[in-house]
Write a structure and sequence with these properties.
The protein has 2 domains: 149 residues, Rossmann fold, CATH 3.40.50; 194 residues, NAD(P)-binding Rossmann-like Domain (Rossmann fold, 3-Layer(aba) Sandwich), CATH 3.40.50. It is an alpha/beta fold and 383 residues long. The chain is 44% helix and 15% strand. Helix 4 packs across helix 5 and helix 6 runs parallel beside helix 12. It binds nicotinamide-adenine-dinucleotide.
Length: 383
């Protein structure tokens, strides 16, 4: 894997092609696990690109393009190993397939990573190399900002490829739209659990007061909800206490906070074997990606009677906002579409109940059914 990532200029590994990889090692070599990894969740394509002149090392993963080109952001991160970077991009690309499918978009799932240190003086050169990498896929993958990248970075990428969205002066910061979608999803949870959309009088524990978490806190406060908050950044916590009357707790105390709703808006993997027994909330609904450490934690939440709004169902507002830019929708229409997350979440809960499975698995099945139907339709058109 390391050799294909660093020695070939663009080694494409197509799991569905009949030919072998163009990288130096084929199946059966010490790299055999790579194809197993891709086949496990049906990824279509992974592209590794190395540009020795700039020091760029990037991976683009395309999970499924049945509904359209793979749409998902570029993450810029100092991964500990090439394998960590690959595993992350594979997992993130797959989530994008589900997120885009559930949001009703005509986009498939993709994601990319630039492996490196944020503080590099060669940032522009790395981003341009990433743009050339994206261009080499001729539109099968469309990028946007993500952790470690910004709209200004997307402008640099655009110098090399048109397959980029979330540009300066276009659809703008997606976070308020994401927060609105989370809020609507939370209302759907309240409706399902308590028979009313109203969040006023409820206590919500928010983990992370960044772009999404703070915007969500504002919406909830406006409705009269009581807020318990935490963040690693003390200034953000102070602001929430002063502006929104929130009660602050230490980062590790948020799981056991006395709150009816827990809203993870910071990191992935926060629902795990350590945190789950400590949770007091009846509902988990937040903006963070990949909240479940493993799929089985969704089952455990259901067994404990905790209503979980699957992250990729509830945090699709950002990608709806990007689609507005791609499709020329108005900001009002993007918000209206985002409001539809309310209905999607209720559909997920109804399917989970009917099928006797967790909400996380039900959401995946709903997304998979939409993709399967599109595949069948394509097949019948072709014949
Ligand atoms: P952000 O970086 O603006 O905010 C994250 C906040 O979490 C920061 O204030 C950080 O200090 C805090 N934090 C980090 N670790 C923490 C910990 N252990 N305990 C408490 N706080 C901690 O990011 P964001 O844009 O608000 O995104 C938040 C999450 O939502 C991420 O998982 C992101 O992938 C996901 N998401 C964001 C969008 C969007 O539109 N921004 C869309 C979909 C999903």
């Amino acid at each position: 894997m390391k050799s294909s990532a660093s020695s070939s200029r663009a080694a494409l590994a197509r799991t569905r092609s009949t030919g072998g990889p163009e990288g130096p090692q084929g199946p059966g070599g010490s790299d055999a696990g790579l194809f197993q990894l891709l086949a496990e969740h049906g990824h279509e394509q992974v592209s590794f690109w190395s540009d020795p002149a700039s020091g760029y090392r990037g991976i683009i993963a395309i999970h499924d393009t049945t509904l359209g080109p793979g749409l998902g952001g570029t993450r810029f991160w100092p991964y500990g190993s090439d394998r960590d970077a690959l595993l992350d991009v594979l997992r993130l690309a797959r989530s994008m397939t589900y997120k885009n499918a559930l949001a009703g978009l005509t986009s498939g799932g993709g994601k990319s990573v630039i492996v490196g240190d944020q503080g590099t003086p060669r940032r522009e050169a790395l981003l341009r190399a990433h743009g050339r990498h994206i261009q080499s896929l001729h539109g099968r993958y469309i990028t946007a900002e993500d952790v470690g990248t910004s709209p200004a970075d997307m402008e640099i990428i655009r110098a090399e490829t048109p397959y980029v969205t979330g540009l300066i002066g276009k659809s703008g910061d997606p976070s308020p739209v994401t927060a609105y979608g989370v809020y609507r999803g939370m209302q759907a949870c309240a409706r399902y659990r308590w028979g009313t959309d109203a969040l006023g009088g409820r206590t919500v524990a928010i983990q992370g007061l960044g772009h999404v978490g703070y915007a969500l806190a504002r919406l909830l406060r406006r409705d009269g909800a009581t807020l318990v908050v935490t963040d690693l950044d003390a200034a953000r916590v102070r602001r929430a206490v002063e502006e929104l009357g929130a009660q602050a707790v230490e980062p590790d105390e948020i799981y056991a906070a006395r709150a009816e709703i827990f809203a993870p808006c910071a990191l992935g993997g926060v629902i795990n074997d350590t945190t789950l027994p400590r949770l007091r909330a009846e509902i988990v609904a937040g903006g963070a990606n990949n909240q479940l450490a493993e799929d089985r934690h969704g089952d455990l939440l259901a067994e404990r009677g905790v209503l979980y709004a699957p992250d990729f169902a509830i945090n699709g507002g950002g990608v709806i906002n990007l689609s507005a830019e791609l499709n020329g929708w108005s900001a009002e229409y993007a918000m209206e579409r985002t409001g539809g997350i309310y209905d999607t979440v209720l559909t997920v809960f109804a399917a989970a109940k009917q099928e006797g499975i967790s909400s996380a698995r039900a959401a995946e099945r709903l997304a998979e059914r939409r993709i399967a139907a599109a595949k069948t339709e394509r097949g019948s058109v072709a014949t």
